[in-house]
Design brief:
This protein is α/β, with parallel strands linked by helices and 370 residues long. 40% of the residues lie in helices and 15% in strands. Bound molecules: pyridoxal-5'-phosphate.
Length: 370
């Protein structure tokens, strides 16, 4: 067996994104024990920086050990009990996955569907809350990576509060790339992933829970079905006063996340959001010049994930393959209903820069010419 040596890639797909050298260096820092005082301090620092990135004061703000799907599963298994009614926005792959998790918990899914590539209109959430009495939670995907839609959230937290429902939001592709204002928007449970706009390797799921959500979780009638993701147990590992062993934290990944968060806060959240927005505009404006059109209306476009229509009579897979093998650039294919119809060009975190875009535009033009 040869020494590990994967090809260098420019990651412009739906994630993972490219990683800053400082984060790679953090990964190679010697491992200490997961209860070592040095590591406990690192956990505190991660919590403090995650609060800033999620724009929340929530005490229970942590990094769950596992990818974004672990955060998704954790948010649902902790809140939903058999028979609970849960409103779920269904307009892409990840809304569908959330509905699947809700039904696996014995919850009753109240679907709010929209065409793939369209948002869930906020007034429909209010209508559904009025129609169904005693809804436990409303679940929406902020940045639907499968379609490139940015879901408006601002008004929905108040609707949930007025109907005593918890508001659960997936920010796997938005956190660190577009504003996510957990407290201002009244979000009760919010999860993300490390490998997108946070530009860290995949493996952790940053999460934050409001006190209200924690109260609901602590007052459950039944035990949480998942032992590993039970926040009643995980809380005692992450709380400053307790630090009881629950599982062996992925120490190196936490080092990496700490450094990635430091980089984000050094850049400044507003500056980072502006960079993602400007680079998305730059990409789309220049793609138009080559006749390649965005698939999503400007009002709902997601700067970290740009959905572009595949032109008629073009073998989209062949083009992606050439980009990867001849130019070392990864872009994403369409998923589900959009398979073969769109490309998904990610401009997330470290990957979101002009040099990458100029190189991609050049490579695409050369390939399309032939
Ligand atoms: N939610 C969204 C919006 C995603 O884009 C993804 C992954 O692409 C996930 C959840 C699942 O995350 P992971 O693949 O890290 O488990």
């Amino acid at each position: 067996m040869n020494e590990l040596n994967p090809s260098a890639r420019i990651l412009l797909g739906p994630g993972p994104s490219n990683i800053h050298p400082r984060v790679y260096r953090a990964l190679s820092t010697p491992v200490v024990g997961h209860l070592d005082p040095d590591f406990l301090k690192i956990m505190d620092e991660i919590q403090e920086m995650l609060r800033m990135v999620f724009q929340t004061k929530n005490r229970f703000t942590i990094a769950v050990s596992g990818t974004g799907s672990a955060g998704m599963e954790a948010s649902i298994v902790n809140v939903v009990e058999p028979g609970d009614q849960v409103i779920v926005g269904l307009n892409g792959v990840f809304g569908n996955r959330l509905a699947d998790v809700v039904s696996r918990c014995g919850g009753e899914v109240i679907p709010l569907t929209a065409d793939w590539g369209q948002p869930i209109e906020p007034h429909r959430v209010e209508d559904a809350l009025k129609k169904h009495n005693g809804v436990k939670a409303v679940v929406l995907v902020h940045a639907e990576t499968s379609t490139g839609i940015l879901q408006p959230l601002e008004e929905i937290g108040v609707m949930c509060r007025n109907h005593s429902a918890l508001f659960i939001v997936d920010t796997v592709t938005s956190l660190g790339g577009v504003p996510v204002k957990v407290d201002e928007w009244g979000i009760d449970v919010c999860y993300s992933g490390t490998q997108k706009c946070l530009s860290c390797p995949p493996g952790l799921s940053p999460m934050t829970f409001s006190d209200k959500a924690m109260h609901v979780i602590k007052s459950r009638k039944n035990k949480v079905q998942s032992w590993y993701l039970d926040m009643n147990l995980i809380e005692s590992y992450w709380s400053e006063s307790n630090r009881v062993y629950h599982h062996t934290a992925p120490v190196s990944m936490n080092y990496a996340l700490r450094e990635a968060l430091r980089i984000i806060l050094e850049e400044g959240l507003d500056q980072r959001f502006q960079r993602h927005l400007e680079n998305s505009h730059y990409l789309i404006d220049h793609l138009r010049e080559s006749g390649l059109m965005p698939a999503v209306d400007a009002a709902y476009r997601l700067p970290p994930l740009n959905a572009i229509r595949v032109p008629e009579n073009v073998d989209e897979m062949a083009i992606r393959k050439k980009l990867l093998l001849q130019y070392g650039i990864e872009i994403g294919a369409g998923l589900g209903e959009l398979k073969g119809k769109i490309w998904r060009i990610g401009l997330m975190g470290e990957s979101s820069n002009k040099a990458n875009i100029v190189y991609l535009l050049h490579a695409l033009r050369e390939i399309l010419k032939h």
